[in-house]
Amino acid sequence: MSSSGCNYFYRIHRKHPKRMGFLYILCILLLSLTITVLSVKVNGKNDNRRHIVIIIADDLGWNDVSSHGTDQVMTPNIDSLGYAGVTLGRYYSHCICTPSRSALLTGKYAYTTGMQGYPLTNGEDRGLPTTEKILPQYLKELGYATHLVGKWHVGGSREKYLPTKRGFDTYFGHRGGFVDYYEYTSEENWSIGKVSGMDLYRNETAAWDEEGYITDLYTEEAISIINSHDASKPLFLMMAHLAPHSGNDGAILQAPPEVVRSMRHVESPERRIFAAMVKKLDDSVGDVVEALSEKGILNKTIILFISDNGGMTSGDSVNYANNYPLRGLKMTPFEGGIRVVGAIWASDEITSHQYDGYVHVSDWLPTLLKAIGEEPPNNIDGHDLWANIIMNQTSSRAEIVEIDDMAGYQSYIHGDFKLITGHVDQKYSNHQGKDLLGIIGKPPSYTDAIVNSKVYSVFKKAGRTIHFEDMVIRNRFKDLCPKHDDEDDELCHPGNGTVCLFNIKNDPCERKNIAEANPYIVKTMIERLSIEKKRVIPRANSIVREPRANPAFFNYTWHSFVDQVSS
Ligand SMILES: *[C@@H]1O[C@H](CO)[C@@H](O)[C@H](O)[C@H]1NC(C)=O
Ligand SMILES: *[C@@H]1O[C@H](CO)[C@@H](O)[C@H](O)[C@H]1NC(C)=O
Ligand SMILES: *[C@@H]1O[C@H](CO)[C@@H](O)[C@H](O)[C@H]1NC(C)=O
Ligand SMILES: *[C@@H]1O[C@H](CO)[C@@H](O)[C@H](O)[C@H]1NC(C)=O
Ligand SMILES: *[C@@H]1O[C@H](CO)[C@@H](O)[C@H](O)[C@H]1NC(C)=O
Ligand SMILES: *[C@@H]1O[C@H](CO)[C@@H](O)[C@H](O)[C@H]1NC(C)=O
Fold first, then answer.
1. Strand, helix or coil at 492?
2. Which pLDDT score is estimated for 481?
3. Which end of the chain lies in a sparser environment, N or C, as judged by fewer CB atoms within 10 Å?
4. Is residue 566 within 6 Å of ligand 6 at its C-beta?
């Protein structure tokens, strides 16, 4: 086809072979050059800059999405995103919120920026160092309109730490770890007693006029950003939900009553409310995908859905999330704390599959930059996994490190092996949540849930039917650790000189310590960890609550207290 314009020369060439053969070849060469130049222009930088939407769930457990096997909590929109795109089977994060979000924004392990350990409190003067260039700053420089809806939690004590000072054009959300789903207040236990303040901001102003269930507020904000977006510009929307994090003491689980009522198949009263919170989150994903479709930009958008860390089935900040059958909770380096829900979808480039290569939260910065045609920075820990993920290739990430010098543990994953050293709180280190999975009567139909979901119908309308065979993924995860009897297990707990080594491919539920049988592997992994430990920016071993941050000084808001003169 491309040579048709050269046929004139070709015909003459047949009559006068010597003279015109040269011209025919020259003509072909010129044509190919023109085509190359044209296609570079079409596929070049500007047109590659797709919109990016990152949706982050807060403390959503491994077993809290239906694509991982649960019949209790239906998440057809989140699942469909993965079925149409890529379900990440081995997606790892840090095991705590502030560290995970720091790694997402910087592309670096949290312990290299001093953001590891116990999450930021509202009364703490600390933030992600402003010397770090973060994802929204990269994207803003590239001409993106940048918006953050929802949780920040990497610094609010000074104005320079706030999202609007760090690359986001607009902000609507809570700055700290969590708030009440209706009042947007956050309570902390101080030595003087309970301290409470409002934490919902529009740009840098307290958003006193808002009302409604916070997941709805965040969804409406995201939709309004999408609707009013100038489509000639690329869009970066980061949507960091409060859900399904716990609220304040006394009201830790909150969802609209009619949604809770629709969860009457859930036996555990707490899980019933939790399931409703997750349904609202899942509906939000459907609404956002629908808004992108109605705006006509869905097919030019990359959508990433991730959880920030594992669920908190019991203990501090319990939300009755479920990581079962994975071992351990949030705040532990066991799989339940760090192996989390992840899915990515990107237009027609991806043929749907499950990706089993390692992906870490720090990989998104370089991966997304690559996806829009930019060279990622090289002074980071994250790997550009774009090609690996979309083409289902072996992951170039060979290892995953978790270091918390505050809690005093380290974990190191390499290949099939995972080593844990130091001390991990034992009350969060076992297999929890099996007893919370009861269902009254028959569970809801998964097929109906998928077919009735917004994401399914939006994709169907766009000619991308989600095939039911894709739900093989769900069944695979259901049998993640088929043979177990957790009650009888002698689980390995690190500490007092004991290190635990697991083969997380064969034993993803971390039941069998194989350290003694593999002294060489243990030695090599400890050596690697000791090198990595030299990169740690030390974290003070204290939970700070500065009296001057008291919301009473700031009209009962949690404010950037270092810069603000109290009213
Ligand atoms: C937030 O800041 C952006 C950018 O300066 C501005 O366009 C927008 O109007 C602000 N929103 C509010 C409510 O002040
Ligand atoms: C706050 O203190 C109360 C009473 O001492 C306790 O029951 C509760 O668990 C504490 N909450 C948190 C989040 O530490
Ligand atoms: C993307 O969707 C828009 C609106 O639905 C449509 O006009 C356009 O042709 C689509 N582009 C591609 C590459 O499918
Ligand atoms: C993706 O790669 C894995 C591991 O190599 C393989 O088992 C799987 O079949 C591949 N999936 C697809 C859709 O090619
Ligand atoms: C370490 O030793 C202390 C004191 O003997 C004990 O309380 C703790 O349970 C031990 N930890 C482990 C992991 O064995
Ligand atoms: C102070 O708080 C009240 C709500 O308690 C709010 O209505 C008012 O607008 C706030 N004042 C300022 C100056 O922000």
1. coil
2. 85
3. N
4. no
Most ligand 2 atoms within 8 A of CB, residue of 192, 249, 316, 331 to mutate: 249
CA–CA distance, 352 with 373 (Å, rounded to integer): 22
* Neighbour count for residue 393 (Cβ, 10 Å): 12
Are the CB atoms for 443 and 265 separated by under 8 Å? yes
pLDDT tens profile 152-176: 999 999 999 999 999 999 999 999 9
Q: Considering only 260-264, 449-453, 472-476, which range has the smallest mean pLDDT?
A: 472-476
Q: Tokens at residue 176, please?
A: 């700290």
3-state secondary structure of 247: coil
Is the pLDDT confidence value at 2 over 50?
no
Segment 42-69 shows an average pLDDT of 84
Tracing tokens 């502030």 back to the chain, one arrives at 98
CB atoms within 10 A of CB 471: 17
Q: How far away, in angstroms, is 166 Cα from ligand 4 center? A: 39
**Active-site residue (options: 95, 97, 481, 492):** 97
Confidence of residue 7 (pLDDT cuts 50, 70, 90): low
Catalytic residue list contains 97 = yes
Q: Which ligand places an atom closest to the C-alpha of 469? A: 4
Ligand 4 centre to CA of 389 (Å) is: 11
**Which ligand places an atom closest to the C-alpha of 490?**
5
Ligand 5 pocket, residues with Cβ under 6 angstroms? 493, 495-496, 498
Closest CA to 436 of 312, 333, 308: 312
Cα–Cα distance between 215 and 153 in angstroms, integer?
A: 17
Nearest by Cα to 207 from 548, 553, 546, 559: 559
pLDDT of 17: 53
Ligand 6 center from residue 557 Cα (angstroms): 9
The three-class DSSP label of residue 112 is: helix
Distance 145 CA to ligand 1 centre (A): 12
Tell me the C-alpha distance between 537 and 111, whole Å.
Answer: 6
Q: What percent of the chain has pLDDT over 70?
A: 89
- Show the tokens assigned to 217: 């507020």
Residue 141, SS3? helix
pLDDT tens sequence across 79-138: 999 999 999 999 999 999 999 999 999 999 999 999 999 999 999 999 999 999 999 999
Question: Quick count: other Cβ atoms within 10 Å of Cβ 486?
Answer: 16
Sheet containing 91-92: order of strands: 339-340, 91-92, 359-360
Residues 6+ apart with CB under 8 A from 390: 86, 346, 349, 350
Determine the distance separating the centroid of ligand 1 and the alpha carbon of 164, expressed in angstroms: 9
Ligand nearest to the CA of 353: 4
Instruction: Identify the CA nearest to 159 among candidates 121, 213, 199, 205.
Output: 205
Ligand 2 site residues, Cβ closer than 6 angstroms: 189, 249
Dihedral (CA of 37, 41, 42, 45) sign: positive
Of all protein residues, the one whose alpha carbon is nearest to atom 1 of ligand 4 is 392
Catalytic residue list contains 229 = no
